Known about the structure:
Layout: H1 7-35, H2 41-65, H3 77-112, H4 116-141, E1 144-145, E2 160-161, H5 164-184, H6 187-191, H7 197-207, H8 211-229, H9 233-267, H10 274-277, E3 289-290, H11 307-311, E4 314-318, H12 326-334, E5 345-349, H13 355-370
Antiparallel strand pairs: 1-2, 3-4, 4-5
Amino acid sequence: MAFENLQPLAYGISITLFILGTASIFLRLYTRGFILKTFGWDDVMAVFLLLVNTGQQVILFMFLHHGCGIHKQFLNAAQLQQITKWLFVEEVYYYFTHWVIKQAFLLFYLRLSQRPNFQRMVWVTMALNTAFLVINWLLAFLQCTPFDAIFHPENHPEAHCMNSLVLLIIPSILNIITDVIILVLPIPTVWSLQMSTRRKIGVLAVIGFGGAAVLISGCRIIILYQLHVSPDTPYILGKMVIIAALEVEFAIMAVNLPSVKALWNKMVGGGSSAGSGAVGYSSGNRSKGYKLSSFEPGSRTGGGSKLGKSRGSFTISKLDRGSESEEELFRQAGMGGQIKVTTNVAITSDDKVAVGELERQDGLDAVARRA
């Protein structure tokens, strides 16, 4: 059974998603500013995106306020006129919102790798994204001659206007093209990292979360076609409010997810202290860590070293897997050469003896034995 009034559903979905999208921006800024301490231009763009997204939400509220989501026969002429005006405003502002989201993503990519080819591709994509914005704006502002015919077609019977289906579909297709490019762009860089296939897929999954926005964009084309063929414009625009909220907020969460992952690792214990995380085999928990028995008090190193007695107890423990930040992996890959992901280890000493001093003493013992 179809909803006769889409407004409650549209309000609920748009508000919920706006809260999630806004929260993801604040979490990103906190992570970059206080945990990773790597605040950059993409984060500045994220702050700007916070303002732009708020404006987008206001426009969706104005649609609903003037009657979108309700059948046309229940609205008066003044409401229909307001819907027409806000439809043009959303048409222009929606393109700009997507431009900001994509630029934030691409600025993030510039930090991931310093490889010239990758950097060039990112800059080309940024230029393409800007070109598509200009094309979409030109279509919006030049769709009718004279311009006032967009809002008052009854006053301009001789006006020349573009085909409405072209005006609706072309911007969405251009939007999907840039979405796909942005999703595909980092794949070669990720796949060149020396780590397990499972980890590569995990990294791509984090970055590729924006694929959900691409799928929603495909659904949006269906709604746009309904808007073209149906005379019940206000009701169809109620569906458009829902789709626009889904598309924009999922894209925003996708932009912020790679940075927020570092906060997630911190919360779930992605890194642990060396002392507390080290457990020897004697404890019965063999998955937590390893104890180097050669460093136990009273043990001997090689044939006759007394290093153990004088240097105290040492443990080497495995840290939890998954603590490698996807952003850090990219950054290292871009600084030249190959990197290899291995399990991190932490070495602790009960009496704070430097590892370099131990190696020096061990070398002296070996020389003494050879003598």
